[in-house]
Amino acid sequence: MPTISTHEPEELLAELTALGTLTDETEVFRRLARLDPAFESNINYRYNVNGILVDLGNDRGSNRLLSAAVKRLGILVKNEPCDNYYYQLGNAYMGLGHINAGYSPSIGSLIDCEEFTKARKNFSMVNSNEFSQQAMTHEANILDFYSRNYEAILLYDRILKKNPEFGMAMGNKAIALIYFFNISATGNPELLITARDLLKRLSTCRTPGWWVAWKAFRSLKQMRGFWKPLS
């Protein structure tokens, strides 16, 4: 088996970049079988490789890749717990939850879905500023997925209080407000106005979140009187 020097960061970066471009699951596992023993003592490899595996699994909706990531990350959080591993493990469980429960799940499938509960548990273990806002946003998204919209909105507010320009929370809060408007008996227009204003802020702060902003925009643009061009 070829040996890869752990003293060459450019070589490690090239290997991880190449791993992230693979489309065949069998080749992903074949590549990991080569890289794991070669980089087993490299903290940067351990810190990043499973995040790539989670991204591959989520992008492809692959139960096999995400289950492998859960197994690998479960060992890491047991032996060397850190926020990065908890965050990646939460993402892996959340991806499995979407696969197993579906994106338009029944109440029964949500009740039976243990993966979302495990995802929230791991996201709640994240404490550092580097990952906490993303983890809290994903935790709020899960609450919203269970139609616990009021709790989700309160959590988005906590995130935005810490970082008013955090795009992921802005866009997802806008979506939650639109949904809350649609299910509320009174249909308070202030909810839509707040959602619109969040999207305006998102368009000017230049932070990640346009994928959620677009979902909210599609809902808002058909409600006459509540949407104006962002410019």
Give me the secondary-structure category.
mainly alpha
Number of folding domains?
2
- The residue-averaged pLDDT reads 84
Shape: globular
Largest sheet: none
- The percent of residues in helical segments reads over 70%
User: Between the first and last Cα atoms, what is the distance in angstroms?
Assistant: 57 Å
| Range of strand content | under 5%
What's the tally of helices? Answer: 12
Could you name the ranges where pLDDT drops below 50 across 5 or more consecutive residues?
1-7, 222-231
| Secondary structure tally: strands | 0
Cα Rg = 20 Å
Strand/helix succession: HHHHHHHHHHHH
Short description:
With 231 residues, the protein is mostly helical.
Q: What features would you describe in this structure?
A:
This protein is mostly helical and 231 residues long. The chain folds into two domains: 1-127; 135-225, Serine Threonine Protein Phosphatase 5, Tetratricopeptide repeat, CATH 1.25.40. 75% of the residues lie in helices and 0% in strands. It has helices at 9-20, 25-38, 43-60, 63-79, 83-101, 107-112, 114-124, 129-145, 149-162, 167-183, 189-205, 210-220. Helix 3 (43-60) runs parallel beside helix 5 (83-101). The chain is globular. Residues 1-7 and 222-231 have low confidence and may be disordered.
